[in-house]
Amino acid sequence: MGNTVEVSNVSKSFNGQFVVRDISFDIAKGEVFGLIGPNGAGKTTIIRMLLDILRPDSGGISVLGSGLTDEIKDRIGYLPEERGLYQRLTVIDTLAYLGALKNKQSKRRTLELLETMGMLSHKDKKIQELSKGMAQKIQIIAAISHDPEFIILDEPFSGLDPVNMKLVNDLILELGRKGKTILISTHMMDQVERMCDRIFMIHRGNGVLYGSVVEIKSRFGKNTILLEFDGELKDIKGVKKINHSGNYAELLLESGADTQEVLKTIASKVRVSRFELSAPSLNEIFIQVVEEA
Fold first, then answer.
1. What PROSITE patterns does UniProt report for this protein, alphabetically (predicted)?
2. Residue 213, exposed/middle/buried by CB under 10 A (0-12, 13-18, 19+)?
3. What angle do CA 150, 154, 160 make, to 5 degrees?
4. Using one digit for the tens of pLDDT, what is the confidence trace for 256-284?
5. Going by C-beta distance under 8 Å and a sequence separation of 6 or more, which residues neighbour residue 276?
6. How does strand 181-185 pair with strand 32-36?
7. Is the C-alpha dihedral spanning 100, 151, 171, 134 positive or negative?
8. Which of 17, 105, 107, 149 would bridge with 99, disulfide CB 3.0–4.6 Å?
């Protein structure tokens, strides 16, 4: 299938301080790829270099088999984290204008996307009349209305309720099935875990995790208990950390802990309806990597 993106030994510094240091990764055609990391890690700098807004100090970047020419840039779709739509234009005029900037205007495709995103009935409203979530969906449509081959989505789920989050999730996966290559940058690790084929995690300018979600989780071993329970859960011997979410919990075991003994202790304290030994969630791996660094 080949790679849509190849980043090779890229570094970038500002005022003598490295923001990105000697990073390398590739994104295959049709892949949904996650770019993750804490705030200030270097994600935005990477995205700007992929868009040719910034140039690397060293190393090479190839997109769609080429350098970043104007023709290649027209085949890229971009949803920036910093949103910006013309507030006094109507939805349909906004999308027509942004499509024209990419030399591709397809009113039919635009109307189809508006219908898919549940926004067709709002096409004649001004942007300033839309809610934050509705405006977010228009921004996403603007990023893909010119039918790009490579799509960069920076925090695509921002401002969305669970229903619309699923709608955007389904749209992204459908684009991937159609052969589009998609890079997602987000802090929502549960979405990354469900959607992405592979991830690249950057921290303080350095690549710290790279590979498939399954392979990365397997590296950390089955040291986590997923628990559904009733009662009060605390002070479990052999458990070093408990992440609560109502009647659900993720328990991170201490090294060498006896799982059966932990289960006996838990069962003596709360009523257990589900107990599963698992690899840690990507969210927990993210926290662990950052804390250890």
1. ABC_TRANSPORTER_1, ABC_TRANSPORTER_2
2. buried
3. 115
4. 888 888 888 888 888 888 888 888 889 88
5. 225, 226, 227
6. parallel
7. negative
8. 105
